[in-house]
Amino acid sequence: MFPLNTWYAAAWDTELGRTLLPRTIGERPLVLYRTTSGEAVALADACWHRLVPLSMGELHGDDVVCGYHGLAYGPNGRCTRMPAQETLNPSAAVASYPVVERHRFVWVWLGDPAAADPDLVPDLHWNDDPQWAGDGESIVLDCDYRLVLDNLMDLTHEQFLHADSLASDELSESEPEVAHDDRSVTLTRWMRGIEAPPFLGMQLRRKDPDYEGPVDRWQVIHYTAPSTITIDVGVAPAGTGAPEGDRSAGVNGRVLNTVTPATAGTCHYFWAFTRDYHLRDQSLTTLLRQNVSHVFGQDTEMLNAQQRAIEANPGHEFYNLNIDAGGMWVRRIIDAQVAREQGRDRTPPSRLAAVASTTRETA
Ligand code: FES
Ligand SMILES: [Fe+2]
Description:
31% strand; globular; binds fe (ii) ion
């Protein structure tokens, strides 16, 4: 279950070129490519004539030519040529979807094209901001995209699933602050005077090779509906003022995550890890990407197994713990967005907030 009137990341910008890239987004098989002038295009990957995938055809200039009987379609989806006919059938077209490129991703809008406002693309500016450096990957997961959101909204799992890189006992001992409105949730957790976990301690020593000792660690998880989460993470030597706002002695990272539903049980997970120090150190960029890739490999294995277990236990209802507060907000916001799109519910956000806080108090 996913909203349609939203931008979903369909690809890294470097994935698109002068070849036909098939990709299923929101249950819709699409074919993606660039025109000769470099514009990104997303068309339905099904020929108007006999539905075969257009991605099995080839590009002629800016047109996609079907590999079966040669019908050609322009970037707007309209048929431009029918080899066996002199006149074009006026209804001959495939769907063309609004596309925008921003923050190193190609975003596609599946819903009402009139509502496809580029200003609604989620803010992932750290990915192409000259004050930041980093890189990422994309993963295809065999799970509902909402399981990835659950995973990112509750980072106490680092203590157990990522014991070799990100664990701090204080993760599950510290109480996060949770704030929300009708399309975002922010969860803030500070751990003061703790031992740095390996992944963050390593980064602090890249900046200050002599530092040994306790750190203040932070995680600020920010969700934007329906499926983008940025995480402000870092550590600073304990007592240097990070909790009060001076992080200059520490290392700042932003974990960028946007999750795109592919089918009901699969999704595309685009992530990047960016930092605001040693910007020209490419070996550090590579090292950090490899480290985070290892971490997300552990998540992938767990989430795919969770999805199999969910499918093996139909109708099972989950219990929610305190650690699930962020994820519960995410589900409420997505459910409300889908209900509004389907005209089933026009509950204003303020009422939604009241219902949710009542639920939490009595949970
Ligand atoms: S199926 Fe594409 S041209 Fe016939
Ligand atoms: Fe994880």
